[in-house]
Amino acid sequence: MKAENKNKKKFKIGLLQMRLGKNADDNLKKAINMIGKAVDKGANIICLPELFKTEYFCQSEEVKLFNLAESLNGNTVKLMSNAAKKNKVILVTSIFEKRNEGVYHNTNVIIDENGKVLGKYRKMHIPDDPSYYEKFYFTPGDLGFQTFKTKYGKIGSLICWDQWFPEGARITALQGANILFYPTAIGWHPKEKERYGLAQLDSWLTIQRSHAIANGVYVAAVNRVGLEKQIEKSDGIQFWGNSFISDPQGVIIAKASKDKEEILIGEINIDHLENVRRNWPFLRDRRIDAYSDITKRLID
């Protein structure tokens, strides 16, 4: 286990780009093993992919798949808390949360280096697209956009489809977040990849880099890799990897491949963030007196 980083201005984050299989226990063991390796590489905060315990099950609408959900006191959070404490590392982890009978969420749990749960974020924007039938499974988040205070400063934690909405990034940044983490499960429909794949991936990278620039924050997005067929006769989803870390100017400081499991490490420099904000004072120059229309669906 690597020595604890005492420098609060410069520290490292780790993203675990994973290939997930059908066996949940194997996925959990792999995640815990990768956490240890990331700490050996110097990571002080580690983020796992969205719903990493299982294959991406939202490719179909099946009532029996609600059995995959667990409470915030369940096995996954307990194992992740133990891993955080053992490795003295902060974790941003993901679960399919059973809140009550009939109410389920897609939830991030933030755990500190002592194994204590700092809080949770429930996915706010829920997609409903071919093979991404999340509205069937997840109730929209009711906790709002949040930050979590860590020994390295405040961090924000959003989830996948949230990454397309500038409002979520802005509100989280306004609460003081220096890093926006985006656990993700996104990929190509194999039949569409040749025609649309490059543009789709570029859009995904661009929108998140824009959040970094507009808010003067670091952005860290972690995805899964591999072809997953939740229905054998379907084409499945080819998850495109490309996990990355962007600095507050939108410069990508670390980026993973499209098809390999990787532990991605990037350095966060709070002095650099402050310097960027001093020169690009977007938060200072916001016209908050002129933005009331943003709460309307459309302006007719």
Description:
With 300 residues, the chain is an alpha/beta fold. The chain has a single domain (10-286), classed as Nitrilase/N-carbamoyl-D-aminoacid amidohydrolase (4-Layer Sandwich). It is built from 5 helices and 17 strands. It has helices at residues 24-40, 75-87, 166-174, 193-215, 270-279, and strands at residues 10-19, 45-47, 90-100, 103-111, 117-122, 128-129, 132-133, 147-150, 153-157, 179-183, 187-188, 218-222, 224-228, 237-240, 244-246, 252-255, 262-269. The strands form 3 sheets. Strands 1, 2, 3, 4, 5, 11, 13, 14 and 17 form a 9-stranded mixed sheet that branches. Strands 8-9-10-12-15-16 form a 6-stranded mixed sheet, with helices on one face. Strand 2 (45-47), helix 2 (75-87) and strand 3 form a beta-alpha-beta unit. Helix 1 packs parallel to helix 2 (75-87) and helix 3 (166-174) runs parallel beside helix 4. It starts with 9 loop residues before the first strand and ends in a 21-residue tail after the last helix.
Concise summary:
Helices cover 24% and strands 29% of the residues. With 300 residues, it is an alpha/beta fold.
CATH architecture: 4-Layer Sandwich
> Can you give the helix content as a percent range?
10-25%
Main β sheet profile? 9 strands, mixed
How would you state the average pLDDT, rounded? 96
Beta-strand portion reads 25-35%
Supply the CATH superfamily name.
Carbon-nitrogen hydrolase
Q: Helical segment tally?
A: 5
General form: globular
Instruction: Give the CATH topology.
Output: Nitrilase/N-carbamoyl-D-aminoacid amidohydrolase
Terminal CA distance reads 59 Å
Structural class based on helices, strands and sheet pairing? alpha/beta
Roughly how many Å is the radius of gyration?
Answer: 18 Å
Number of strands: 17
User: At the first level of CATH, what is the class?
Assistant: Alpha Beta
Order of helices and strands: EHEHEEEEEEEHEEHEEEEEEH
Task: Please mark out the parts with pLDDT under 50 across 5 or more consecutive residues, or reply none.
Answer: none
The total number of structural domains is 1
